[in-house]
Amino acid sequence: MVTLGVLALQGAFREHLTVLNSLGVEARKVTRPEHLEGLDGIILPGGESSAMVRLAAPTGLFVHLGERIRDGLPAFGTCAGLILLADRLTDDTLTGFDRPGGLDVTVARNAYGRQRESFVAPLEITGMTPDFDGTFIRAPQIVETGSAEVLARHDGAAVLVRQGNVWGGSFHPELGPDTRLHAEFVRRLGHDD
């Protein structure tokens, strides 16, 4: 059986756990480095990236997670999780804090506006029909994709990317009834194509 971890420091981790359980995946919370043992992959949820880096700092969780990702652990970051996985940010808000990185993109935090400017938009995702409804809440924007493959765009901007087995999305796939994106991540575990 596949075992996925969900970073559970803060944010929408419960919703990701619920989706994974509905897919028959064994899912467990990750809050410390030792929780990374035995995982086939990890999801980094949306929430507040600045709170997450501060909560992870005392245990060195993101240093260990970054090493595991570089060693091939599949990872999927959504919203704040994308910020944590991005190799580059457009601001220095998180300077001085470890982030796992591993995704060759540049991200602008909160680029889609404030909480009241949240929206849901249909997204054409490569290989997925029909469209997937993406929920954007104070979402980051991918401003440069580097070597990452763009899987979906919204108004011309990349909102879902994949680089090998590391995925990043600007939106919250766990907040709607559609589980196809989680299912595809699980299906591709162990494939670097």
UniProtKB/TrEMBL annotation:
Catalyzes the hydrolysis of glutamine to glutamate and ammonia as part of the biosynthesis of pyridoxal 5'-phosphate. The resulting ammonia molecule is channeled to the active site of PdxS. It holds the Pfam family SNO. It catalyses: aldehydo-D-ribose 5-phosphate + D-glyceraldehyde 3-phosphate + L-glutamine = pyridoxal 5'-phosphate + L-glutamate + phosphate + 3 H2O + H(+); L-glutamine + H2O = L-glutamate + NH4(+). The active site is at C79, H172, E174. CDD domains: GATase1_PB. Keywords: Glutamine amidotransferase, Hydrolase, Lyase, Pyridoxal phosphate. L-glutamine binds at G47, E48, S49, R109, I137, R138. This is Pyridoxal 5'-phosphate synthase subunit PdxT. Its EC number is 4.3.3.6, 3.5.1.2. Belongs to the glutaminase PdxT/SNO family. Pathway: Cofactor biosynthesis; pyridoxal 5'-phosphate biosynthesis. PANTHER family: PYRIDOXAL 5'-PHOSPHATE SYNTHASE SUBUNIT SNO (PTHR31559), PYRIDOXAL 5'-PHOSPHATE SYNTHASE SUBUNIT SNO1-RELATED (PTHR31559:SF0). It comes from Brevibacterium metallidurans. In the presence of PdxS, forms a dodecamer of heterodimers. Only shows activity in the heterodimer.
